[in-house]
């Protein structure tokens, strides 16, 4: 009689960088694909038009939704392709897709290549240039007179930036939770 014993060794680390990169590549590819589709059906435009306020308000809705869906999918891919189990690990790997994507967008924006990522890269470039733009548009005499207005403007900009960064992070984390494998799953099929 021959007895065979099989032992399955699962990874103990919670971060699987290969799946995180796969999730980021998937998110960016889906972001690009959906942005081209939105442009083709007229949901976004190439020319902002004459009224910049309306273009910024309405033109950012489709790319924002596309970005949320792309990060949701990227988080799902990272969690689903990871060898680690559990919803918490899936959320963590999904969140890292967003974090890595944010760092990539900021790095590209720092090198002047933010437009490669469309609205996300443009957003990162705007974050980097906020201080320079604000400093160039302020008369030093007005600073002492309008301190509260300046503080309110900075606060409002920070709240918008927080929401603009936080929502994709939440979407990627939710995607990670949805793509996470249960603790008792034994197969690695996708």
Question: What is this entry, summarized?
Answer:
Helices cover 71% and strands 0% of the residues. With 190 residues, it is mainly α.
Structure in words:
- The structure is a single chain.
- The protein is an all-alpha fold and 190 residues long.
- The chain has one domain.
- It is built from 7 helices and no strands.
- α1 packs antiparallel against α3.
- The longest helix has 33 residues.
- The protein is elongated, with a radius of gyration of 21 Å.
- The two termini are 36 Å apart.
Order of helices and strands: HHHHHHH
Mean of the pLDDT scores?
77
Span between termini: 36 Å
Q: State Rg.
A: 21 Å
Strand content range = under 5%
Descriptors for this entry?
mainly alpha; 190 residues
Task: Please outline the helices and strands.
Blueprint: H1 17-41, H2 52-59, H3 61-81, H4 87-110, H5 119-136, H6 140-145, H7 147-179
């Amino acid at each position: 009689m021959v007895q065979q014993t099989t032992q399955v060794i699962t990874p103990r680390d919670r971060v699987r960088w290969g799946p995180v990169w796969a999730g980021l590549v998937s998110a960016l590819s889906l972001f690009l694909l959906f942005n081209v589709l939105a442009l083709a059906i007229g949901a976004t435009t190439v020319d902002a038009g004459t009224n910049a306020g309306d273009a910024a308000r309405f033109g950012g809705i489709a790319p924002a939704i596309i970005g949320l869906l792309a990060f949701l999918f990227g988080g799902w891919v990272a969690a689903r392709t990871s060898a680690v189990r559990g919803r918490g690990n899936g959320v963590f790997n999904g969140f890292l897709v967003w974090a890595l994507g944010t760092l990539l967008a900021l790095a590209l924006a720092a090198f002047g290549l933010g437009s490669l990522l469309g609205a996300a890269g443009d957003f990162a470039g705007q974050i980097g240039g906020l201080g320079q733009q604000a400093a160039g548009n302020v008369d030093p005499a007005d600073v002492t007179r309008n301190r509260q207005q300046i503080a309110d403007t900075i606060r409002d900009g920070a709240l918008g930036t927080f929401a603009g960064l936080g929502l994709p992070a939440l979407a990627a984390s939710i995607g990670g939770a949805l793509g996470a494998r249960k603790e008792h799953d034994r197969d690695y099929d996708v």
